[in-house]
Amino acid sequence: MDRIERIYINGEFVAPHGQEWFDLHNPSTEEVIGQVLLGDAHDARRAIAAAKAAFPAWSRTTREERVAALKRMHRAVVAREDRLMEVILEEYGAPSVRGRWMATYPAAVIEQAIEVLESFAFEEQAGTARVIQTPVGVAGLITPWNSNAGFICNKLATALAAGCTVVIKPSEMSALQTQVIAEALHDAALPPGVFNIVNGRGDVVGEEIARHPDIAKISFTGSSAVGEHLVTAGAATMKRVTLELGGKSPTVVLEDADFAGVMPLVLQAGFANSGQACIAGTRILVPRARLIEFEQAAREAVSHVKSGDPSEADTDIGPMVSAKQWERVQSYIRLGQAEGAKLLAGGEGRPEGLDRGWFVKPTIFTGATNQMRIAREEIFGPVLTVIPYEDEADAIAIANDTRYGLSALVLGKDSVRCERVARQIDSGRVLVNTLSHEPRAPFGGFKHSGLGREMGRWGMNAYLEPKTLLMESGASRR
Ligand code: NAD
């Protein structure tokens, strides 16, 4: 059994002041597989002080020095990929294909941050003024459990590239993944205090970071409820805030779509990351005139989707991360039926043959309206809702009738029409007939799906303040 009893402050693994032990589970077996000793507000303050002390020197490093540091981080994280894969499977239960992606993504995002840093314009001319992009200060980075290592590395690499120093509050439920990443980052030999990692509860360590005057910026990925709270909590100290929050993303199936052809994309988008994905396409909008045909195709396709042991190569959907998350998903499956939606596939309970583990049947509701709670609230499990629409305008109206706006998928044969629809959807990202990802483009949400953007130069700008420098005319610039 793993026991994680150190946090990382000022370049060292140290014992926390906090004394609470927190159990880590294998969601496939429900067994306790480890324990983590949580830090407290005192530990958060120590970490913030270390990051504050490291800021003046780090913020003055050159582009070349930061690139060299990020390259060391990249090498160290690549060296830990196999171990990361093991703990992702054990602690999170990601099916193997997804798990491999989650284990390689942390190094990939560091590489992307290097690419951005290498060509980033830290200074530019605006009329007679020089505009200098200046690191904002100490950044507090708060991550969720559904891709903890990837979010740590993305936020950290971008913040360091910008010249900020950092305090990380990872998800307390992902301490094994955090430990693998912390050991890799330690090997990268960055200056002490440049990054600090404090395991702890959100309402303890996260709250201290959210309110502390020496934190200039928060970058948070997690639920909309906590994101909204962070905006309020940070207001008194005027924190810059980047929020990547939840979603209820539409998959718009247009009338001319070949249902058999698009169904793999519909199901992959909906069941991505075992349904525990912020970008999951959970509202499937289908032309009413072809609803029965779509239902038949979906029922057939979902019968081949396997929810079960994530270590088996043909598993598509792994367990929910916790008992609480399993209960929550079950409650939505009951709620959908109570609201009058019809089960097309799946339903309450575990998939056949499984009597333990937080597994959920791949579930699809049909006959739903966009006003039902199963169509409005983020379930965060493999539960999809088919909603019929009348015509193109109705489809766009339903797609946009949501408090969220993170991602959308448009499927159809006529690419001109697909693009016309895509351009009218209020969402940070719209995919047309593809699930591909472009890391150079900004990622983030409209409305309650977030504030600001990560990735590419947009992500870097979020850690910088533009400073305008105007000189007496004729004075030379150094
Ligand atoms: P969560 O909001 O419960 O927790 C996220 C993090 O915030 C955790 O580290 C938690 O400890 C911390 N936290 C909790 N309360 C806090 C407080 N008062 N102050 C400071 N920090 C606090 O989310 P979760 O359950 O871990 O993750 C699932 C959610 O994350 C879903 O809503 C999902 O859509 C969202 N998510 C969004 C994206 C995106 O990029 N938009 C990506 C992944 C997940």
3D structure, described in words:
The chain starts with a strand and ends in a 9-residue tail after the last strand. The longest helix has 24 residues, at 96-119. Helix 1 (41-59) crosses helix 7 (202-211), helix 3 (81-92) crosses helix 4 and helix 9 crosses helix 10. It is of the alpha/beta class and 478 residues long. Helices cover 40% and strands 21% of the residues. The chain is globular, with a radius of gyration of 23 Å. Nicotinamide-adenine-dinucleotide (NAD) binds at residues 142-146, 169, 171-172, 202-203, 206-207, 210, 221-223, 226, 229, 244-247, 278, 378, 380, 406, 445, 450. Nicotinamide-adenine-dinucleotide binds at residues 142-146, 169, 171-172, 202-203, 206-207, 210, 221-223, 226, 229, 244-247, 278, 378, 380, 406, 445, 450.
Bound compounds: nicotinamide-adenine-dinucleotide
Structural class: alpha/beta
How large is the share of residues in beta strands? 15-25%
The helix fraction, in percent, is 25-40%
